[in-house]
Amino acid sequence: MGMKWRNWALPAAPLALVLLAATGCTSTPDDAPAKAAGAASTPGAASYVARVCAKPAAGPAKAPAGAVTVDPKVVGDLAEKTRSSPPGTTFWLRPGKHRLEPDRYAQVIVKKGNRYLGAPGAVLDGGKKNNYAFSGTARDVTIRYLAVQHFVAPHDEGVVNHDMADGWVIEHATIQYNSGAGLMAGARQHVRASCLRGNGQYGMNAYKTGDSIRGLVVEDNEITGNNTDDWERRKPGCGCTGGIKFWAVNGAEIRGNWVHDNRGAGLWADNDNNDFRIEGNLLEANDGAALMYETSYNAVIRNNTIRRNNWVEGRKYAARGDNFPYATIYVSEAGGEPRIRARTDKIEIHGNVLENNWNGITLWENADRFCNSPANTSTGYCTLLVKDTKRCAKPAIATAPLYADCRWKTQRVNIHDNRFLLDTSVVKCETECGRMAVLANYGTYPKWSPYKGKRVADAITHKQHNRWHDNVYRGPWSFVAENTDQQLDSGQWQGTPYRQDTGSTFAPRAGG
Fold this sequence. Notes:
Elements: E1 68-70, H1 77-84, E2 90-93, E3 96-99, E4 108-109, E5 115-118, E6 122-125, E7 134-135, E8 142-144, E9 147-149, E10 158-160, E11 169-171, E12 174-176, E13 181-184, E14 190-192, E15 195-197, E16 202-206, E17 213-219, E18 222-224, H2 231-234, E19 242-246, E20 249-255, E21 258-260, E22 267-270, E23 274-279, E24 282-284, E25 291-294, E26 297-302, E27 305-307, H3 311-319, E28 329-332, E29 347-350, E30 353-355, E31 361-365, H4 402-405, E32 413-416, E33 419-421, H5 424-427, E34 435-440, H6 455-463, E35 467-469, E36 472-474, E37 478-482, E38 487-488, H7 490-494, E39 505-507
Parallel strand pairs: 1-2, 2-5, 3-6, 4-7, 5-8, 6-9, 8-11, 9-12, 10-13, 11-14, 12-15, 13-16, 14-17, 15-18, 16-19, 17-20, 18-21, 19-22, 20-23, 21-24, 22-25, 23-26, 24-27, 25-28, 26-29, 27-30, 28-31, 29-32, 30-33, 31-34, 32-35, 33-36, 34-37, 36-39
Antiparallel strand pairs: 37-38
């Protein structure tokens, strides 16, 4: 689902929050606050995260009035009592390990408005035998204070909300050590104060058949150590990994999360997403990009602390001699579009602290990737401006309006009032790890493409209103424009013809 970097051919309960130490470790007591690196240098940048995996909130020690009690000593008790109870029932799972029948397809088929509450120590365990935990299309289901683990969902499928039902609330849950995705998503789904840890593919796969996810909220969660099955190695170029993957989501709030130590990208919005607000998160130590926003529209990315990301993947490509600026925030064929309704008509990246990552922000377009092109890895999809992919064909694609509307464009990206800090002795790199970029490849394919040559590179660099300004740089930063061979210093970047980073300041050494 999507492209890996380049392709050339309900109210929430109060949350107990703690501060991270500057190293990202837990050397301070769990209840003792400490400053997060970079938080003080930019007002509003992420300062607090919920360490929910280490200290999950405890559920009710007694069954709520009217609740059906579920016994961990009875195998399959949860599924059976769900079957025999009416919609809107509250279930209280006693402390202990709850199991389903030892059959691959044994699962809990929920009913509308059901509520599942775990007592302290309640775990639903798939025993590496069951594919799915909670399934069915019933809406408005709530799961709280419950651990769900050791299920074996297939690739691209999920364990909790397997059928992508709408209106679910997952809160104070621990979803861990499952294959596939720990969690799928439906419209108006809220995931709060939960631990999504160590799942084989994704912590959450925010994909729904029919592309109808609206109003998704992901807040105050810890999302860590996902993609343990290393799917990019098993299926090279699949674009199918990360902490969370978003696909065709219209309207999302991603805030206050600690996204760290995932194999691959931390957060990846891929294919016709729109109207995202990504704010107040701590994104750190992910093997790949902290954030990828690809073939998508209209987003605000603000007040995040982003540190020590992309060391594994960036270093890997550099060791191969690849000079592409693999970035920590990677905007690929994605931009602001006033014709698509959202809370903004830009991609605005501001008030963030990026510290000791492998590279900074890259704005990229693949000139060969457009609707109906064989180089479009989102097979069968077109831009949100053209409903019928087949219209994007010669000769009509060569003229207005299709010439503009058949191509996902990196446009109207405004990058300002951020701090970019780089100490190469910490990252253990040289000049290849300190780059900003705006570029495209030379268009060559297919034969009937109207975007051949330097047209797209010229457009993304000079004509599509992509702008850096009023940022602070500390460390040996360089800048790439138009193509990978065009590497600039700060003076060239600020000068004619690029005129970027007006009002920005530069210092060769990293620091506060």
